[in-house]
Structures are given as C-alpha cells and as structure tokens.
Amino acid sequence: MRLEEPQALDAFGALSQETRLRMVQTLVQAGPDGMSAGAIGESVGASSSAGSFHLAHLERAGLIKSRRESRSIIYTANFEGLAALVEFLMRDCCSGHPEICAPAAVVAAECGGRSGKEMTANC
C-alpha cells in the first residue's frame, strides 16, 4: 500500500484529535485480536456515540479496520495503513544521509515480530 499526499493528509487529520489518537494507540497495543467498540470507548473515556463517531472517522482514514463477530463489531489497527503512513513520511528521507533515519529504523527493528503485550512493553 502506497499513500499519496491526499490520503496521508486524511490520516494525519484523523490522528490530530486526542481521542482518535488514543483509540489508535489502544488498538495498536491490542494487536490483531482487536477490541469491541465499547471496550475501546471505555479505554479512552469516550461515550458510545462519540466513540462510534471517532471510530468511523479512523476507519474512513484507513487507520483501523472493523469486522463483525456475532453481535459485536471488533476493531483492529490497520497495520498496513499505519506502515504506509510512516513510509510516506520516510519515503524521501535523508537526502543521501541514511544515518538521519537511523533512530526510526532502530525503533522499527525492535518492534518487528512482536505482538500484543510484548509490543506494548517494548515499542
């Protein structure tokens, strides 16, 4: 997935609101199992109507995904979309000086292959 500027602007706009940013952080920490809308709202202190509004905004921006499980909707971070956003920022990075990007590469390498609670503690 390769983001272009309009999609990146939508994603950054979605993340520029405190509740939505906390929702994405919560879902990244939850890993691929995700969480129900109610649990996410409770985790970030949002009412069910506000939570639904923010989750819909994040989904439209490509930062989260939803799936139905029985009577619940489970939300997960869209790791592909989040990675594309980071790639958008780093695409033309460094102007021939890769050492500038080294700190970001170290963080990515430390998080690679980890999931769930391990990721929460180390990334």
Q: Helix and strand layout, with pairings?
A:
Elements: H1 5-15, H2 18-30, E1 35-36, H3 37-44, H4 48-60, E2 64-69, E3 72-77, H5 79-90, H6 102-111, H7 116-122
Antiparallel strand pairs: 1-3, 2-3
Helix pairs in contact: 2-3, 2-4, 3-4
Condensed summary:
This protein has 123 residues and is mainly α. It is built from seven helices and three strands; from the N terminus they run ααβααββααα. Helix 3 crosses helix 4.
Structural account:
The structure is a single chain. The protein is mainly alpha-helical. It has 2 domains: 5-91, Arc Repressor Mutant, subunit A (Orthogonal Bundle), CATH 1.10.10.10; 92-123, no CATH class. Helix content is 60%, strand content 11%. It contains 7 helices and 3 strands. A 3-stranded antiparallel sheet has the order 1-3-2. A hairpin with a 2-residue loop joins strand 2 (64-69) and strand 3 (72-77). Helix 2 (18-30) crosses helix 3 and helix 3 crosses helix 4 (48-60). The protein is elongated, with a radius of gyration of 15 Å. Residues 114-122 have low confidence and may be disordered.
